[in-house]
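Hi there,

I know you've been waiting on this one. I reran it after we fixed the sequence typo, so this is the corrected version. Both the input and the resulting structure follow.
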Amino acid sequence: MVFLKDEHEEKKVLQKIFSKIKPKECIDIGDIVYGKVVSVTDKMAFVDVDSVDGEKVLCPSNTGILFVSSIENGYLEKASDLIKKGDYLKARVTDANKFGLKLTTADRNMGVIRAVCTSCKEPLKLNLASQELKCLKCKSIQTRKIAKM
């Protein structure tokens, strides 16, 4: 941390730092976003969106809501069946307003791109042949809505 002598000097340093950062200021409908799942219920998952197409974002609200009906095509009983807290997602924005972002992962190339074990919190390894996620530490096999790359 840097301590500056006066407010004027601090303002100049901050302006210099922020002038070099070119973040996307707003997230628009149709944008592809990336974020971490911070909470999951039966009906929805809450996602802390941190980037749009690889660019960091500075927005008033960067919370995304992924409803169970938007996780995949077809019927899914619970969001928690395919999305877990701590997962990192790729999703598309279907609505954006002052309350947050509405997301979907129903497209083939959208979904979980990095997952952690629900038991031991270690990263899960994807078996490409079987599409299973396996924890190398505790040996559990888990299911997610995996983004096809």
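Quick highlight: The first strand starts at residue 32 and ends at 40.

Best,
R. S.
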